[in-house]
Amino acid sequence: MKSVTDSFVSLGHWPSAGSFGFNTDILATNPINLSVVFGVLIFFRKGVLNDLLDNRKQRILSTIRNSEELRRGAIEQLERARARLRKVEMEADEYRMNGYSEIEREKENLINATSDSLERLENYKNETLHFEQQRAISQVRQRVFQQALQGALGILNSCLNSELHFRTIRANIGILGAMEEIAD
């Protein structure tokens, strides 16, 4: 195998002077060809390559900045959402507590209203019973009075004769006449 320096030395000694040909020895010509191609590419393409790399770098940086802005926006939205969630949870707890206290208050009001209604019904029942008792007592008194009166009339009718009857009527008329004179 020939070394790289040997291939450079052999450049000056081409066997076919005057004709153009290809060296088919890959190991001898490949490093030279590659170094020439790279040298030309670097020399001529250095500005284009730098521009491409700079553009790529700017796009990457821009993407990173956009990602950071989106991340900050997402964090802000997340914080707002968390704050709103805390607020809604507090309101829900407040509504729950108010709801429980409202239910208890309504329960107490219902119990009190029912108790008042029962008390009024009890009073109405007692008043009705008292009224019915008074009515029954009144009816019994009236019946007893009628029976006593009928009994007294029966006794009077059996004991009285017509002359005693006329004397009682005259005595009553005399009493009424005396009352009339006093009134005048």
Oligomerization status of the protein chains: single chain
Q: Give the helix/strand class.
A: mainly alpha
C-alpha termini separation: 180 Å
User: What are the low-pLDDT stretches, counting only 5+ consecutive residues below 50?
Assistant: 1-14
Q: Count every beta strand, where a strand is a DSSP E run of 2 or more residues.
A: 0
Protein traits:
3 helices, mainly alpha, 184 residues, disordered N terminus
Please give a structural write-up.
With 184 residues, the protein is mainly alpha-helical. The protein has one domain. The protein contains three helices and no strands. It has helices spanning 4-9, 26-159, 162-183. The radius of gyration is 68 Å and the shape is rod-shaped. The termini are far apart. The model is unreliable at 1-14 (pLDDT under 50).
List the helices and strands and how they pair.
Layout: H1 4-9, H2 26-159, H3 162-183
What's the gist of this structure?
The protein is mainly alpha-helical and 184 residues long. It has one domain (34-183). The chain has helices at residues 4-9, 26-159, 162-183.
